[in-house]
Amino acid sequence: MTLDLEATASRLEPRFGKAVHRWVATLPQRLDELVEQWELDLKEQLKSGNSSVVFGCRGPLGDAVLKLSPDRYAVREEVDMLRQFAPSARVPAVLAAVKGAVLLEAIHPGTLVEKMPVPPSPAEYAGFLTDLHAAGDPAAAPRKLSDWIDVLFHSAGRRGAELTGSTRLRDELFAGPTDTVLLHGDLHLGNVLSGGAKGLVAIDPMACAGDPCFDAVDYVLEGLDRAEMLRRRDELAAAAGIDVERLDKWCRVTAPIGATYVSNPGHSAELAAFGRGEY
């Protein structure tokens, strides 16, 4: 396999700075070591974000995904949280792990839910959330939901999001009693895969302890217009047995954040209006 080390370093540099070039220079040797250690047949490099490099491969246990990152702590956290969620059967199995690298079960067909021509029904998504939240110990979470919301608000504020209403609703939500579960924490539909007979599967957790409604918001807000968002909100809350008013408030907390990310201008405008309480 030919690696474009320059392109890899350029992709990772915004996250890790210039020092990442030294890490990328060691990548071919590190891959050779892992291929030998885990008896892998390395295949294609897969698309990934700005924090890791990912490869399809095949090993003694079948098809797998090899993920490496300069951020060893993040890899360790991902491994720990995937093992917490493992009893749900809604995350990839961790096949092996060492510092800075993890070998994961490959999910087939592995289609991103955001790319599916027909999205999962509210009932199907509710089953996915219920299974996920029944697993894991909230006390094992590396952060609280309140900490994660602060990070999201800071990032969205830098992108120009109007968060006055979101801040008020957030404070109301945190002031009231609620169940606490181990949350995935970053359950946008690019982090949910179609697993065939396995059902929906979550990847790349940003795990935190908090209100189970929080993991439901992205499914609601992926609706492209207000009618679809409200339909998803009501049907998902009913199917998952969660408080529709709390779900609505969490959607309004996060909608202005989502409005700064989506590329569809119409969807962005609908999210901003939802956050402002216009419907």
Automatic annotation (TrEMBL):
A matching Pfam family: APH_6_hur
Family annotation (SUPFAM superfamilies): Protein kinase-like (PK-like) (SSF56112)
Superkingdom field: Bacteria
Spans through the membrane: none
Any one Gene Ontology BP term: secondary metabolic process
MF (Gene Ontology): phosphotransferase activity, alcohol group as acceptor
Protein name: Streptomycin 6-kinase
Species whose genome carries this gene: Couchioplanes caeruleus subsp. caeruleus
Lineage summary: Bacteria, Bacillati, Actinomycetota, Actinomycetes, Micromonosporales
